Amino acid sequence: MRDNAVANPLILLGGTFDPVHHGHLRTAVDLFQAFSGRADIALMPAAQHRLREAEAAAPEDRLAMLALAVAHEPGLSVEPLEIQRGGTTYTVETLEILRQREGAQRSLIFAMGLDAWHSLSKWHRWLEIVQLAHIIVVCRPQGSSGEALNCGDALQANRTDLIDDLISTSHGKVLFLTLTQLEISSTRIRALLKQGLSPRYLLPDSVLAYIEKHQLYRCRNRDTDHQHT
Known about the structure:
This protein is of the alpha/beta class. The protein has a single domain (10-183), classed as HUPs (Rossmann fold, 3-Layer(aba) Sandwich). It has helices spanning 22-34, 59-70, 81-85, 91-102, 114-118, 163-168, 186-194, 205-214; strands at residues 10-15, 40-45, 76-78, 108-113, 134-139, 159-160, 174-178. Strands 3-2-1-4-5-7-6 form a seven-stranded parallel beta sheet, sandwiched between helices. Strand 2 (40-45), helix 2 and strand 3 form a beta-alpha-beta unit. The longest helix has 13 residues, at 22-34. The radius of gyration is 18 Å and the shape is globular.
């Protein structure tokens, strides 16, 4: 276990990223800037979709596209842990592994949207999440960052309005943070590609070039997909 007592906070931004687009990346950059560059932002793709679509990209393709998307962006990286674990993964178990890997002192922060926040009480061992990490709830600019806690009073004592609280401690705080939310969706991008239309300017050119090179999102049979070497 390494000593990360003085390491920057590690902020985890999860999702399927199928494909990653400018909406995801703008949120990641906003998080980096909200912490004045004093944080490492890791985009962490889920191992599998809840509802697997025929044209969905394979995990290794989603990782490759993420790597291309963040290649030249300071402070942003890709965390492959959930894909490496494979199968059904639970956030609390992923955080347990990361806590062991990163050490007891490093600030771990799990970022989620309001929709995820409002369903948090249905998550596996959800109350244990704040025993392992902080939570940032990403709010839309037109929304309210003071939305009532959906989890009753369970996490009310964990609320803070100070980013410094997340930097100076390793876990246990919940912060509502208003960030840019671009109206871009992976679902829409996949639909455009399926129709043979261009999604340019919705996602990085490097990601679009990868999609075109490997002919992703065309409803092909996954058994005939290209093999990575």
